Fold each of these.
Amino acid sequence: MEESSAGMAKASEGDDGVLQKLFKMSLSAKEAGEAEITRDDIKSSDEECNRSLFGKVVGDRHAGLLGIKRTMGAIWRMQHSMEVKEISKIFFQFIFLSQEDKKKVSAGHNWMYGNQYLILKEWFHGLHSNHSCFDEITLWVQVLNVPLNWMSTEVGQKVGRIVNKVKNVVGCKVGGDVGSFLKLLVAIDLKEPIPRCTSIKLGNQKVMVAFRYEKLVNLCYYCGMIGHLDRNCSKRLRYFENNCVVDGQFGDWPKTSETFAGGRSMQSDSSGEKVDHPKINPVQGSFASDNIISNVGKQEIIKSNESGNHSPLLFGELGSSSAKNGEIQEFVRVAEPTPTNVAKPVEDD
C-alpha cells in the first residue's frame, strides 16, 4: 500500500532522528499495530500533490512562509491564486489551482528567494528535501582562454564533463575586452566545490582554461560550495577552532555579471564605446527555456544540444517561443546587420 504523498513528504522532514530512536525501542501492542487505509483516504492529498511543485531553498538562511509566498507570487505573476505550505524551514509545497500556472513555473529555471536558489521539482513517490534530485542546479559557464581553432562543440562537451553533465554548448564571438569563449550549460553538483579551471591538451600542446559562472549566488569564498557564505563555512570554522590559518581558495572572480548568448550583454555602439545596459533583476530566474538564446544583438553562434546536433546560426533578436506537447519550440528572427544593432534590456511589465 502506497503512503499518502503529502504524509510521505512530511514524515521525511525533521522527524528522522525521532524515528531512528523508535526503531530501536521495544513497542507496546498498541504501538506495534497498524492503521489500515484505503486509496479513497489519500485521494485528496494525492491530487493536491499532483497539482504542486516542491521547492527547496539552497542556503543556510531560513525562508519564511509568508515571505516566500509573497515574493514568488509576485515574480511568477500567475493567472490564479496559489497556496503555499511550509514542510520545513527550507522546504515548501506550492499548490497551484491552474495546471497552466504550474507548467509555466515548472518550465522556468534558476528561481531565487533571498539571494538563494529555489529548486523546484514535480511530485513523485518518496520525494523529500534531502533527495538527490535537489543536489543539482543548471548554470551557464563561460570557458575562457580556449584557442580559436579549438572552439568547437566537441571540445565544449569534453571540457564540460569536468564540471558535470553538459546540456548545451554555445560558441560566442563577442569581441571587445571579452573576446571569444565557449559557453556551457551544465548541471552543477551542489555537494562539491565549483570547478575553477581545467586544462585542455592536444598532443604536446596544453592550455589552461578558466571558468566563470553566470547568475552565481550564495557562493562560499572559502570552500567554493554553493549554499552558504564564508562566515558560516563549517570548514573554515573547524580550522579556526584548531588554531589553523588556511587561506580560502575562492573569491568573487568565478562570478560574472555579463551574460552573453543566454542573458543580457554588454555591447559596443558605432563609436566603439561600451554600452552598459541596465540590468533588471540580473540573477533572478527566468520563464525561458534553458535552451533558448535571449536577445544578444548580432553574434555568430555555434550551438549544440543534448542530442549532439549542432549547426552555425546567426542570431539576431529572439522571437516568441511556444509550448506544444510539452516541448519548447524556438522561433528566431535574424536581424539585419547595422552598426548600432545592440541588445535592449527587457523592461518589467
Note: The first strand starts at residue 52 and ends at 58.
Amino acid sequence: MIDDAGTTRRPDWLAVARTATLVLLSFAGGLSLLYGVLEAGPGGVARVLDIAVGALASLALVLRHRAPVVLAVVLAGVAAVIASAGLANMLALYAVARRRRLRVALAVAVVNVVSGCVFWLVYAGNNSLSLTIAVNVAMAAAFSAWGALQQTQHKLVDSYRERAERVEREQELREAEVLYAERARIAREMHDAVAHRVSLVALHAGGLTVATGLSEEDVRSAGDLIRSAAVQALQELRTALGVLRADEAATLEQPGLDRLDDLLDEARTAGQRITLSVHGDLRDAPPSIGRAAYRIVQEGLTNARKHAAGAEVSVLVRRADGLLQVRVGNVAVADSLDVPGSRRGLVGLRERAVLAGGSLSHGRTDAGEFVLNAELPWM
C-alpha cells in the first residue's frame, strides 16, 4: 500500500480482519432478515436480486470510515426496498454516530426510521403503523447510542493518552532542565577549580623566568610545585568532563569554609602574600553558604594572581547580623601574569551569590584597590 507521501505502508491486517468480519456479519444478518423474519418477501428473481444488492450493501461498509454520512443515507434508501440490506443500513448509522457529531447522527437516524417504516410497511404489512414506527425508532436509537458511546469512550481514551504523553513530555523537560542546571553548576565548579590551579602554575612558571641565582634545589622545588598544580588541574578537569559526558548528573567535590585554610596555604606556598581576617563563628555554616564563600575567595585569589601578581591580598570573612560578608581585595600593580580572562568567573560568582539569596559586587575603590565583596544570608 502506498500513502500520500509516496512511501510504502504495510496494511493493517487487524483492521482488514475487522472489516471482513463486519461485512460477513452484515450479509448474514441481512439473509436472516430476508429468510427468517419476514412473513412475506420477494421470491424468484426478485429474491436473487435482493441478495445480490444486499451483498453489495454489506461490501459498501468498507467505506464507513471515509464517508459515513453519505454511505448511511444511500444504504437507508436501499434498505427501504432491499430486505438483505437492513443490517448494513443500521451498521452505517452506527458508523455515523461513532465518527460524527450527535446532531448529524440524529438527522441520519430520522432518515433510517423513515426507511425502516417504508420497509416494514412493504414486507410486513400486518403490523400496525405505530408498532412499526416504535420498532424502527428503537433500532435507530440503539445503534445511534452504541456509536455515540463508542465515540465518547474513544475520546476519553485519547484524552488520557494525550494527558499521559503531555505529562511525560513535561517530566522529560523538567529532567532536562535539572540536568542542564546541574551541568551548568559543574561547569562553574570546573572553571573555579581549574582556573585556580592553572593560575598557580602560571605564577610558579613566571617566578622561574625572572628569578636569578636559584640553586638546583630551588629549581627542583619550584618544578615539583608546578607539576603538582598541573596534575591536580588535569585531575579536576578529567573529573568534570567525565561528569558532563554522563547521562545523569553527578556531584563534584564541594569544599566549604572548613577548607578555607587549605586554600590559603596552597596559595601562600605558591608565593602569594595573603592576610586573613575572620570575625564570628563559622563552624556551623550552611553548606550552600560555605560553598559560595569558598569559591568567592578562590576566584578572588585567582584574579589577584592573574592581574596583580605580587600584590598582597586581604581576605575578610565576617559573620554578623544574620549575614556572612566575604571580601577579597588587592592593590593593582604594574606587573601581571599574561593570562587571558573571560570574566566568566565573576559572572559565575554572581550567580552563586544570587542562588544563595545574597549579592555580589566588584570594582576599584578610590584608593586603587580592586575589591570583590559578597553578602550572603546566614540561614
Note: The chain has a mean pLDDT of 79.
